[in-house]
Write a structure and sequence with these properties.
31% of the residues lie in helices and 33% in strands. The protein has 2 helices and 10 strands; from the N terminus they run H-E-H-E-E-E-E-E-E-E-E-E. The chain binds FE2/S2 (inorganic) cluster. The site of FE2/S2 (inorganic) cluster has 11 residues, from loops.
Amino acid sequence: MKRREFFNWVGLGLLASSLPVALAAFTSEDTTFAATTSKTTKKWQKVGTVTELDKTGQLLVENSPIGALLVVGTSKKPKNLIAVKPNCTHQGCTVEWNTKNSEFACPCHGAKFASNGKVQNGPANKPLKTYQVKIEAGAVFVLSV
Ligand code: FES
């Protein structure tokens, strides 16, 4: 084997053996970037229609793209719309909106939450997660963070 052929074979061998490492490094960087991007992206998600919301002044969505949601209010006063994750922070029961007292009440052990999700009565000690709400083109949208 001539010297030139020897170096060609060695160079090709090095390239072939380092290719999987280079691909793995590129792939892992790409995944990290995508994960970082999705964590910081806010998206408005359509969770129902204005007709559904205005029927009772409440819209309970069990399986929205961002999980369970309870939207309270009507399209007549869109600035007063409220959206929360309806799972009580005590043991997870679904809270109900009490229009008369303007609060969320848990039927299981009596916890109560203000319209902004803050705890008013235990045994729950953490607030309900809240979301931004808007109405657009006859649909109800919620902003996931
Ligand atoms: S689950 Fe709501 S108060 Fe216990």
